[in-house]
Each structure stands twice: as structure tokens, then as C-alpha cells.
Amino acid sequence: MRPHSLVYLAAAALALFLAAWAWGEGGTYLSWSPYAVLAALCIWQFFRPLAALWWLVFAVFAVASAFYAWLFLRDLWYLVTEQSTQVLLDGSDSVAFVFYLLAMLAVTLRLLRIRPNATSRSAT
Hints:
Layout: H1 6-24, H2 29-47, H3 51-80, H4 91-113
Helix pairs in contact: 1-2, 1-4, 3-4
């Protein structure tokens, strides 16, 4: 096991957190299953790294990080202009959302640092 491959376990933990949250909120199979599949892919990548799978995991986390960052910035703008917010509802929601956003950004940036080079067949 290489130390930098632990980022895949962190990514799986974030995905499983969202899967459990969606399931706990009474969501249907379609609401939590994509997160469970992403977590399974991250765990697979931890044990058997593949360049193509790295690209898929990175793309999902990059898009999600950009979306969460946009939601955060939009709500900051709503707070400045005294409109009702969507994700920064109260103190505990705001802290939880900011923590999750920072965790997503950290995983995304770490995935970017361990990207496979053009000649390798595996991501690590």
C-alpha cells in the first residue's frame, strides 16, 4: 500500500457519508445508489489502481467540488443581499456544509496530485 493511495479511502468515506445521508432521509434506491457505486469504485481504486478509473473518480469529485463551491458562493451572495439562503441555513448547517466542501476540495486536489502520467498503466 502506498501512502498517497489513502486518498481513495477518504473519497470512499465522503461518498458513503452522502449515501447514508440520502438513505437516512428516506431516499429511494436512486438517491443513494450513485454514492454507493462511487464509494465502491474508490475502494476498487485503492486496491487495484487503474488510470481510466482515476479519471472517472477525479471527474466526479471535480464536478461535485465545483458545484458545492458554487452553492457556497451563491449563498454568500444571498447573505450579502439579504435573500434567503439554500445551504447556509443556520450555524450547524453552515459548519457542516463548509466542512464537507473543504473535505471535497482536499480530496479533489489530492487526486489531482497523484494523477497518472501518460506512460503508466496504473494510477499509482
